[in-house]
Amino acid sequence: MVTARGVVVVTDRHQAAGPLADVVAGAVGGGARVVLLREKDLPRAQRLRLAVALRALLRPVGGLLIVAGQDTLDGEALHLRTGAVAPLGRPRLLGRSCHDGLDVDRLSTEDYVTLSPVYPSRSKPGYGPPLEAAGLRRLAARAGRPVLALGGVETPEQVAACREAGVAGVAVMGALMRAADPAAAYARMRAAWDGVCDGSSRDGGRVLA
User: Fold this and answer.
1) Are 5 and 168 in contact (CB under 8 A)?
2) Residue boundaries of the structural domains of the chain
């Protein structure tokens, strides 16, 4: 089953080096299997069209699209912001953004969480303070469910450091969105993750028995 593990692509069309669907297609070509769709400023109709297009890219490789917000856009996976009330009709996969111990302590039935920002972020200058590896390790152990490290993860070295901190995956936005070659950029991130992985999480998020 594909879930929120490994190297997860986070979208941002404002940073994308080309059309968003093309950037995501490149990342999928480089091995991505899980994509988190943001673009929350778009009208629902436009966002739904984008979700349909991204699912079409992921479907042939058995991938998964997670939608940020409170609307799955006819999908099966949702990522809630901190403090947001979960919608009626729980999706198959439910995640939530967390930033500190108080957020983590309020978790209930979420399947996974993101912890951010881990490092200073070019996408959100001044956002923080960053958790760094020590804070990430502490909160990941406290969360009691799979954690994705998010925020400022831009290099293979940072990917490896996050994996060593005990998280289930990393969520990468700017470094992939801005990449001239998203396939190669994703492959480098994936190689860094796999280089320290114990084998339980492969194929960009597919958990193998």
Assistant:
1) yes
2) 6-205
Task: Report how far residue 49's alpha carbon sits from residue 51's, in angstroms, rounded to the nearest whole number.
Answer: 5
pLDDT tens, position by position, 60-111:
999 999 999 999 999 999 999 999 998 888 999 999 999 999 999 999 999 9
In the CATH hierarchy, which top-level class contains the domain 6-205? alpha beta
Tokens of 66: 């997670």
